[in-house]
Amino acid sequence: MKRQCRIWLPNMLSSTDDSTHSLIFGWFVSHSSSCLDVVVAFVADESSLSSNSGSSLQDVLHETNEKMPLSLRDKAAFTLLGRYDSCLSANGNAPKNATDEDMWRYSSLSCGCHKVDGLDSVSSHWIHMVHDSSSERGIRMHHIHWNGDIVSQCDVHVIVYDPPVFGSHHFSLSFWNASSPQTKSPLKKPNWVDDLHRRQPLIEMETVILSINCATSAEIVYKKLSTQLETSSPKFSLSYLISTLAWWLLAAVLSSLSSLYYSLIHFFYLLSSFPIFSWVLIASRKVFKNTWINFRIRSCQILYWPIFLQENNMTSISCVEQAEKAALQRHSTWSPMAVDLILGNLIGLSLLFNTGSVCSWLFHFAKEFTNDILRSGCVWLMGVPAGFKLNTELAGVLGMVSLNVIQIWSTLWIFMASFIFYLIRAVALMGITFGATVSAAFVIDVITFATLHVTALHWAITLVYSHQIQALAALWRLFRERKMNPLRQRMDSYGYTVKQHVVGSLLFTPLLLLLPTTSVFFIFFTITSTSVNSICMLIEFAVSIIHATPYAEIMIWLVRRQRFPCGVWFEIEHYKKNILTSSSDRSNNSPEKKPVLMVSNLRSNFLSIGQILLPHYTTMFSGISASSLTTSARGVLSGKRMPSKLGLDLPPPRPWMHMPLRQYWTLCHGSIFSSSRKGSNHDLSLEKGLPEASQSSSS
User: Key word Glycoprotein present in the record (predicted)?
Assistant: First the structure.
């Protein structure tokens, strides 16, 4: 059986011209007896092992493997892959006058698999690679030890990749940040489709990509363990002193602001525990329901952000993909709150500087809405609206009741007009203090309370209209000799008496003739109430958008799209036949059995901005479906009220947290200052924590 081997090679290794004898480290991912993946992480100088005064190579490999993710350790172990030399005579003991074929056989038999200091045993696989300036990428594989056999005929696919680095790029096979659950299709699929979904294709590729994402971390850990090199601390300099002082001042300012919010939140919480304020709290929660919900969410974000900032330590994660996810999770704790506060300050300051103009506009709008829409509309319905002849008496009663309610509510609002100035100031201060979402929720509650008379009139006319529709439907069933069976939810035959038919006829006629008058009033107040609810729903939609938008991911995507991969592809660079064969083997090979060498580059696809936003907005609209909208539309025709809220998803509130104020300030300051140190230490580990060879490769 013809064997196939894929060698995943770092980009800097394929272009190096180092003449020293080196060891190759990485992972063997074996799928079958004829397929093998060799993931090369890095190359280390063999001479450094003799100067190592610490643990043996076997112990270093074992400790390095323990630092890798558990999912990778279960499938492949970090090990010594083989040797990398500058010529065919790797060990320097070959005959001087040997031919190329003798040199190949001699080097294959004397590659030194069992002659590595500090290594008790080797893997069942071993590769020997040499530097060749005439070959593609300046490097080629000389031979492979495959389960004890020296393989001379093998299809080789060399895949060159750029080593993933945190904050720069990594590789991923799928839509790695998708969080929307898969919905079950109502249609029955064929069996072959279910079998296809149950299969897990490219399992070996998942292991390979995972090992590639861990290559940089494995190199760092190995160098630290093998050379006993600790992470070097940054040298003292003026720039380092200024940077440290700036981060310390930023941490102090943010910690003081958070502590101020923390004290205010706990002050309100302490007031609510007193019995004298309990009834005020209960009443305010019913009247200002949306404000309390968003205030609770904002309070939990303020209380818990330093804890989330300390929990997500991406520098301790060896896989770059997992570190990126942890970093985005860490950024998602502060970015919505920061954007919300910025918007709240912009809106709040605008309202504070233009309070008089906003007050005059509100007075003008309220006057036009009351006189030109509500009162004029009721008077118009009491006459002959659009040429329809209505019942004069019923229209007069409904119109006079509506006008009286509107007048009573307008009179009450005249006495409350003096508080509108302070109400606008309260909205502005809430936006500056707690963000735009809390002030917007407060505006929703104020609009709901200010249009309470419209809601009451709509509820009353809906009650009359729905009962009238239900009575007409019941009488129509009486004429058809049908009766509703509520137990079985069906229509059954039923024999009515003559008296029941007479009474039904006497009731059906006036109800049917009065239906147009009731319908006109119902349509008018439904349109009015729906318009008010639409404004509240629009503000609710804006609040949910502010909560759900991944601001950190958007900003990172605009700067570096490589941090959002979604699949890989291969850019073929070279294709060649007749490799890994001696001169005697080449004469016996048929054209279709000739070994093949293919060199390609590993590339990534990247997510678009829509693919990043879609999972978050799908979760936000998870409570809304087309069936619910259809049900609401049908309910309006039968006399039901339209919902006043969209029911969008909001961040879940967390349990209340009690902590002394000084301890909370220390927690905030430590989380900010330590996060800056984590990021700088992570960069230093890539730049200063490695020997010179590693530094040149990373550059």
Answer: no
What are the tens digits of pLDDT across the range 412-443? 888 877 788 889 999 999 999 889 999 999 99
Length of the chain: 699
For residue 399, what are the CA distances in angstroms to 376, 391, 402?
10, 12, 5
pLDDT tens, residue by residue, 343-398: 999 999 999 999 889 998 998 898 889 888 999 999 999 888 877 778 889 999 99
CA distance 211 to 72: 7
CA dihedral 262, 263, 266, 270 (to 10 degrees): 180
3-state secondary structure of 644: coil
SS3 label, residue 176: coil
Q: Count, in order, helices (H) and strands (E) of the chain.
A: 25, 12
pLDDT at 409 > cutoff 70? yes
* Residue 557 vs residues 169, 329, 547, 618, 668: alpha-carbon distances, Å: 11, 15, 19, 20, 28
Phi, psi (rounded to 5 degrees) for 651 = -60, 135
> Distance (Å, rounded) from C-alpha 106 to C-alpha 93?
9
| Residue 493 CA, distance from chain mean position | 57
DSSP state at residue 67: T
* 550 neighbors 444 (Cβ within 8 angstroms): no
**In whole angstroms, what separates CA 140 from the centre of its chain?**
42
Backbone angles phi, psi at 608, to 5 degrees: -85, 170
What is the bridge-based pairing of β-strands 596-606 and 149-151?
unpaired
Which burial class, exposed, middle or buried, applies to 651 when counting CB atoms under 10 A from its CB (0-12, 13-18, 19+)? Answer: middle
Structural contact between residues 321 and 172, judged by C-beta atoms closer than 8 angstroms: yes
Which residues are within 8 A (CB) of 155 and not within 5 positions of it... i.e. 6 or more apart?
A: 2, 3, 4, 5, 595, 596, 597
Residue entry with tokens 């630092």? 67
> Could you tell me the two tokens for 417?
């007009």
List all residues 6 or more positions away from 13 whose beta carbon is below 8 Å from its beta carbon. Answer: 40, 42, 43, 84, 139, 697
For 102, residues 6+ apart whose C-beta sits below 8 A from its C-beta are 94, 95
- Which 8-state DSSP code applies to residue 169? B
- Locus of tokens 């112990």: 59
Give every CB contact of residue 249 below 8 A, 6+ residues apart in sequence.
none
Is it the case that residue 567 has pLDDT exceeding 50?
A: yes
Contacts with 456 (C-beta within 8 Å, 6 or more apart), sequence order: 405
CB-side neighbour CA atoms (13 Å) of 108 = 20
- Beta strands 22-30 and 482-485 are unpaired
Residue type, 454: V
Backbone angles phi, psi at 78, to 5 degrees: -70, 125
210-262, pLDDT tens digit by residue?
Answer: 899 898 888 888 888 776 544 444 555 677 788 888 888 888 888 888 888 88
Structure tokens at 682: 């992570």
Beta bridge partners of 38: 7, 28
| CA distance linking residue 610 with residue 645, whole number of Å | 26
CA distance linking residue 251 with residue 666, whole number of Å = 10
Q: Is 515 helix (H, G, I), strand (E, B) or coil?
A: helix
Q: What pLDDT, in 10s, does the model give residues 623-654? A: 777 677 777 777 777 777 777 777 777 887 77
Task: Write the pLDDT tens digit of every residue in 598-612.
Answer: 888 899 899 989 889
